[in-house]
Amino acid sequence: GMGEGDFGAGVFGGDSDLGTELKAGGGGTMFGSRGGEGLVGTFYDLKQTPDGKPTKFAGGISPGDFYGLLGEYGKEKFSPSVVEGYYQAKEKMSYTYLLIPDMDAREGPAAFNVEREVEPKGWFVHYSGYVAAPRDGVWRFVGRFDDAVMVYVNDQLVLDGGYRIATPGVSEPFTSQAFANGKPAFAGKWVSLRGQFKLDILIGERPGGFLGGGLLVEEKSGDYEKRADGSPIIPVFSTAEFSSKDLMRLADYPYDIAETTPVFKMYSRQ
Fold first, then answer.
1. pTM of the model
2. 2 pLDDT band (50/70/90 cuts)?
3. How far apart are the C-alpha atoms of 267 and 29, rounded to whole Å?
4. Which residues pair with 124 in a beta bridge?
């Protein structure tokens, strides 16, 4: 287990001069912004090849194959060789925050402008970039997504919070309050974040139908209000300041979320 291992400064052989601070983009879609400079999101369709021919998953992908492929991608440190045989959308997305109420799974391909080419099942999005926490400390990611959300810090899995858990022992129940598709959120491993670190987030939809969920963040030394069950009311993980529209989305989401949002700064690795 990772426990509270250090991540961030020094991991890539440098420290504060590792990268250049970037401005994160604003909203735009439920999956991020089509402009700005957040975590870069790439959309993959597992049902077809890059040139549109059917793969072995064209008729549907089993839970074992779906979560197994996502897990393999992470274990291989997001090597292009794992996904080179699958269709990739040309449109990229800039991640700002993830907070999606339960909705039609067609909204996923539509956000990347591939709704005509991609059926709303058997797809996933890979967000990746370099960030720094608002302050050095011990943090953990909390969330759930139907069907999959996996968070990696410097290529190590720190949260697995999907409809089905791909990697046992990484996450634990967070609260009894429903967070996504009527199910509660998961809390990942506590990690010490110092300076800049590489962050990868996978979200995906397997059978189609509906999707939804989000990603929150908790600081171990944070002072949070509590729910009736004693769990802390924590903020959304974000790489940008919230706009008035973002705050409206936050207020409308059917889950207790802290209003004050700590912003993780984006960096470009040099």
1. 0.90
2. very low
3. 22
4. 44, 204
